[in-house]
Design brief:
Layout: H1 56-83, H2 85-97, H3 103-113, H4 115-135, H5 138-164, H6 166-170
């Protein structure tokens, strides 16, 4: 397995020669010294700017976390609708007043609403955890994401070529 090193941008050199601690001033700037390549940094991953402290994977995980809360709420509401209509109506009323965009905030607010709502929140947390661990098909997610990216890229490139092709414009 090949190891990789990630250096901060301030430590990366764009010069083909390594820096010397005490480099004398050259009296003849027209003379060239022999080419000395810097040590290559081999990194297997792309650098993605603009994500601050979190990686794109961490951002995706946060979105999945919130999505799992949404799924858990859907599962619990479907269960309550069939056997506990009173709790179902309370949860639906709470849903109408609170957003599900932030799953943890939603569950925290639900817990603090009343003792009855607290039990609903605990049920949602249990279902969210169980769905994530046991039912979500992680391999299928990866396969579908790859497939969607490839199909989308192919379609967009094909459409662009067809739009810009001189043969198509003449017909």
């Amino acid at each position: 397995m090949e190891s990789s090193t990630i250096l901060p941008l301030s430590q990366l050199s764009v010069s083909p020669w390594p820096k010397r601690a005490h480099q004398p001033t050259r009296s003849r700037p027209w003379t060239r010294r022999a080419y000395q390549p810097t040590r290559l940094i081999r990194c297997q991953k792309m650098y993605v700017p603009g994500f601050g402290e979190a990686s794109p994977e961490a951002k995706a995980a946060k979105n999945l976390h919130n999505f799992f809360t949404y799924i858990a709420v859907r599962i619990v509401t479907a269960q309550l609708e069939s056997y506990n209509t009173e709790a179902y109506e309370e949860l639906m009323e709470f849903l109408s007043r609170h957003s599900l965009n932030d799953g943890d905030k939603f569950c925290a607010n639900l817990m603090r609403e009343s003792p009855r709502h607290r039990s609903l929140a605990l049920r949602i947390l249990e279902v969210r955890s169980a769905y994530c661990k046991n039912d979500f098909e992680w391999d299928n997610l990866k396969r579908l994401a790859f497939k969607m990216v490839e199909e989308s890229n192919t379609r967009l490139m094909r459409d662009y070529v067809l739009e810009t092709s001189p043969e198509e414009q003449e017909k």
